[in-house]
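Worked example 4.2. Below are the chains of a multi-component assembly; read each line carefully before continuing.
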Amino acid sequence: MFDPEHSLSVTQDADRLYAKAREDGIETVWERHTAQQPQCGFCDMGLSCRICVMGPCRVDPFGEGPQRGVCGADADIIVARNLCRMIAAGAASHSDHGRDLVEVLAGVADGTAKGYKIRDEAKLKKLAAEYGITTDGEDVLVLAGELAEAMMEDYGMRRRAINLVARAPQKRRELWDRVGLTPRGIDRETSEMMHRTHMGVDNDWQSLLLQGMRNALSDGWGGSMIATEVSDILFGVPTPRVTSVNAGVLKKDQVNIVVHGHNPVVSEMVSQACTAPELLALAKEKGAQGINLVGLCCTGNELLMRRGIAMAGNHLMTELILSTGAVDMMIVDYQCIMPSVGQAATCYHTKMISTSDKARFPHMEHHEFHPDNAEAKAMQVVRTAVENFVNRGRVFIPVEPREAMGGFSVEAILGALGGTPAPLVEAVKAGKIRGAVGIVGCNNPKIKHDYGHVTLTRRLVENDILVVDTGCVSVANAKAGYKMPEAAEMAGPGLKEICRALGIPPVLHLGSCVDNVRILVLLSALADALGVDISDLPVAGSAPEWYSEKAVTIAVYFVASGVTTHLGPMPPITGSMNVVNLLTSGLNDVVGATFAVEPDPEKAAVFLRQHIEDKRRALGLDARRV
Amino acid sequence: MKEVIVHPKRCVGCMQCMPACATAHSRTRHLVSAVLETPQPKPRVHVGAGRFNEGFPNRCRHCDPAPCQLTCLTGAIYRHAGTQTVMIDPDRCINCASCAMACPYGVIRFHEDPLGPPGRAVAVKCDNCVARVAEGQIPACVEACKVGALTYEERDTAMKRQTLAVARSMSSGAGEPVLPPGVGLLRTMKESQVQLLKG
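Applying the procedure described above to all two chains together yields the following structure tokens:
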């Protein structure tokens, strides 16, 4: 429960803007979280079932009340079905985001997606080759069309395995084939998951969870991977660049436009419109020095990675940022956009624009962006934003921005290493870098804002563990100063030496939450370089403040790919100790990795360090006592 | 005589007792139609959050002597002879709130009620579902509670069960009566989260 005596964030801008928001009478996520207490214990334990209308049902965790739903499902089946539906929803979300990019790619090929183009031909050709498309002398647009078609097939039911699964190390692919985890089609696995969890279909909690893993893999090595790769083709492969972060990136004397959501399809067009000479001239006319585009959440990460666009904040900052009174327009697409933001904006002059045919929100104006009209739409809404500048009231920008470096695609990382993972592998072998942890995921009002992310990162980095991050975590760590090469000073001696030699920070920003697949690709390269499976590597995953179904899916595809993963908040599974035990220990025998749950990041750091040292020992490398 | 007994350690905070109570005190007595009634029926049991966000169903204890009854100048508050339930006669209530000031548990609310006089607010609180019990049903909150946090039984039966549980835990080697492991695990996690928020 939120206690006003205690600060709700480790960041200064959040605390100051929270005070301002309350002063302005804005209800935030923290008030709503408090109002929800106590939260339903059946739901918290995964023991409530709303799947059919013989129910709704719940199982008494104390063993005296009902122990089966009306259909006869026991706690194990109910918990497994609920968790699997979370996985399906998460996979559907990321993969549908990927689908939108494939549609734009097809639109570029047939000339209907005006304003979009192929920005990285090399990546297009590389992907085409991976899909078995002949690239010799082919026209780029023809190639783009053929690749889009081939990716659409990945979404369907014509394949025995999704194409990009071939990127995984051979041992991993063999394991997936053996256990029956190789994903066959992106939409197919999600559909089958929903089918199996219908009443009276799959009622073995173990086989349900196996399908849950295959479904998650269909996102990690399918939909999400396509999202990232096609984004790179259309908008460019990210390269390291310095930008600025926190609420201070908003400018008093400029038109401030905030893009919030996930898909670069909209934000890239907005970014283009913000540099249009006629709109810049209009801004001058209205008394503004320019047009300042900043990001929130993952669409911000997409722009930051490729354009160095500044980042205003992560999930729990999305309401607070409005209370600056400095946002002339917020443009949203989909995912993680709290339905409350439109209401919060009514306190200010801020114009709220929704853009996706699949995502509408209260108190927002709807301007639907499609591949064929996005360029014109972007010009239109940015013009409205500029015209809104004159309506500003009191502006409160609580902090000065902080510098941060982003843009570490796998290509950029390998580039910094001289084109091969060998130097990184050598540093790990020599023990200078003990291993690596991917810290990913969201914010959650159950955890002090950014405390989990920043605390865990600090403890790992000072113990010579390289951190890569994405999504909301990357914003937290950037605000905490971990994203500049100077941050090497905060690292342990071995990691510090490597960071200084390469001129990189100890925490590498790999992108948005679909970009977690970059971690999979990087791990595959490391495993191949060492001739081992991913599960043999001294690496781990962590989601210290996760909240969403997408995060569940990411965590599951990490574990199913062989990466042991820590979660901060407990997923709704404690109603079945069978499920808890399988996920936290039994999976080791199936996929060579497990989950671990620990809300306290200090304790989680010890667990993760121990895990990494254990993996080192198994590889015959030196191992420290933790 | 059976009565409603609260077992706080069992409450999982689902709040299902609240809509069940409101429905039982509506005119139509069905959830779907009850929410459409004017005035809206309201729950007389209130689930609050403890220090670790655990649930607690707060309801009238039907004290004897009852402080609310002692302060009620109009005599609207009386004791139901058969069930020893402290009742409020809405027609005699003058909405002075003296009873709420005297109530140590904060379980009295003031609003227009479907079962009270039209057009004015009166004091409303738990009536032990006397109407339901007269029809052979058990109180609505108990019926809704699937975890045994609310039971309807003889006080002696509940006390004997508690005596037995304590006695067993005192047997050599038995230790504290343990929670089911999943319940214990979730509570540990939630307690840790709340501690960290305050840190």
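Take a moment to check your reading of the output against the notes. The CA atoms of residues 178 and 184 of chain B lie 8 Å apart. The mean pLDDT of chain B is 93.
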